[in-house]
Input
Amino acid sequence: MTHNRIPICFIAMAFSHEDTDAFYANQILPVLRQNKIKPIIINRRQSNDDLNIQIFEQLEKADFCIADLTYTRPSVYFEAGFAQRTIPVIYTVRKDHLNKGQPDDRRVHFDLQMKPLITWDGPTDKSFSTQLEARIKSTFLREWSKKQKTNQNYEIEEKNFRALPADARLMHIRRDAILAFKRLGFGEWSVHKRYPWNYWNSVFPKPLIREGLYNYVYGYKSIKNKHYFVSIQSFSSPTKKELLEIDKYFSRTFPIKAAVDMKKTDVKGIHLTILVLSLVNISSSRIENAMPHLIPLDSSKHDYKNYGSGDSDVHIEYYFLSGIRSKLHLKELLNSQIVSNYSN
Output
């Protein structure tokens, strides 16, 4: 398992001074060891790599950083600034560096004076280690523990999900997608009867539809003369033929039928979300080869849109959620890409 590791702390400070070396050994290191945190100090590592490369590599691996500003070493300021982009940084300094009139190499630069600095008097300052441990726990360790527990839950969930037969996994993700849209007010769940493989099935019990037993289902809700539909279908990996069948109905037949229905009623618009779920990753090229007319909504995701022809005001969006590893993973994908659009 990749998540069962101890946290890593990058140490940025001016070593090779008697007081800072003793301060690290007597104050910082015992706190890290007591909390099972691995320290990384670049100038104590045996490596032939360029020093800057080592710094960047180790900062990318680190989970948080302790930056001691004593002796105002430029490299410490640089490392702390680089680290602060992505990880928490705890700033410390020898107390006299905050006194007025200090020389440049014995004072904290103005841009960091506003930071919540933990100060120390000397290598044996007992109050410092207490403050440092409290700061580590409040700014990093508590969230780290939560994240580790979440990651472990994800691994267990993914392992259990992978152990299920493919048909059971497809049923689970259909059901969870249906439940997500039910919570958004979608009801009247039915099975599409436009598809050849469903045409001869005349009865689809509602409870079994909601349990995800059937593929090609859709739900509906209405808000202020506007109709919202969601279509849900799941595959181990949709073939080009299956994508073409979906596209044939939703991009051609559905808009025409919707436009005709709108002229007969007081409906002012129709919004259709087509949700394609896949256990295996679907490449963008496969989607775009089958549906070349789709317009990407977001280049970083499989989100596309298509509009009905004429003045029908039929809005169609496709979402391809692929590489689904677990029910938790599907929930994340739904929340980040679709559900928030309906919650606003």
User: Anything to note?
Assistant: The first helix runs from residue 18 to 34. Residues 166-343 form one domain. DSSP finds ten helices and twelve strands in the chain. The longest strand covers residues 226-235.
